[in-house]
Amino acid sequence: MIEVQNLSKRYGRTPAVDRLSFTVRPGQVTGFLGPNGAGKSSTMRMMLDLDSPTGGRIRINGGRYRELRDPLRQVGFLLEAKAVHGGRSARNHLRWLARAGRIPERRVREVIELVGLESVADKRAKGFSLGMGQRLGIAAALLGDPGILLLDEPVNGLDPEGIRWIRDLMKRLAAEGRAVFVSSHLMSEMALTAEHLVVIGHGRLLADLGMAEFIERHSRSYVRIRTPEPERMRDVLTAAGAQVRQADDGSLEAFETDAARVGDLAAANGLTVHEVSTWSASLEEAFMRLTAKDVEYRAGAAR
Questions:
Q1: How far is CA 111 from CA 15, 81, 96, 141, 232, in A?
Q2: Where would a tag sit more exposed on the chain, N or C end, judged by fewer CB atoms within 10 A?
Q3: 219/215 Cα distance (integer angstroms)
């Protein structure tokens, strides 16, 4: 288990992390979300004692990371997949880590097979693609068979098969009782993988709750309507108290109503409809709504 208590980090006068508190529990995948510059990387580095906090503390299994006995057996991590000596083969890189962590060499073979690097295990890492580098980084994280995993953007560079593989792997490891803490910008993958979410913005905690509750609390479901009479339909729905907006494909999206009510209104007003369906809110929509004021970098409109 990881306990973050009132954690702060400042770089000069700039706060990167601001009195942040949350817990990463075993038996589930916890997603760590936030816009660029939110403080996610700083938080994960402080978890591993790579950076020192300005205030607060982090406890991993009751102590600081640097105090753990056989840390590779307790915490596996992937922060930067390319943090490998380019002249070493994948096998020798893992052997070096295994010896440093007092891990049996047979485990090297096991993790190479687990991540699918058997065919390139004896090739130098400097020739690896981004996806192969990610697989090697994940193999290093799993080397000690740890009970806690910290993974920063683990799907970067992976093809669709690789993305599905790492998704299933994280869920399986959590089902075995491990604590899996993963940061990613891919909302579609996070929605399929994480059971719990920790969301931060400008270094502050914005949300710490289950996936379903987060989506329900921070977004809205709507009724999608396709009709050859969108203007009349909009007027009827608005008069009935619904909020209506037009989607890019010309369909209408009605809030504060339901599909049955829309159908009744269409029938009562002689309106033709080609589709009336309920659409559930998405993690992406909920995240964007919650963090709208915390985005540090915004793209301008195209000209």
A1: 39, 15, 14, 9, 62
A2: C
A3: 6
31-81: pLDDT as tens digits: 999 988 889 999 999 999 999 999 999 999 999 999 998 999 999 999 886
- For residues 221 and 189, which has the higher predicted lDDT (pLDDT)? 189
- Indicate the SS3 state at residue 58: strand
pLDDT band at 301 (very low <50, low <70, confident <90, very high): very low
Tally of CA atoms within 13 A in the half-sphere of 181 that contains its CB: 31
| Separation of alpha carbons 287 and 271, rounded Å | 35
Structure tokens at 112: 């190479």
Rounded-to-integer distance, Cα 87 and Cα 50, Å: 25
CB-facing half-sphere around the CA of 236: CA atoms within 13 A: 20
Residue 189 has a CB neighbour count (10 Å cut-off) of 21
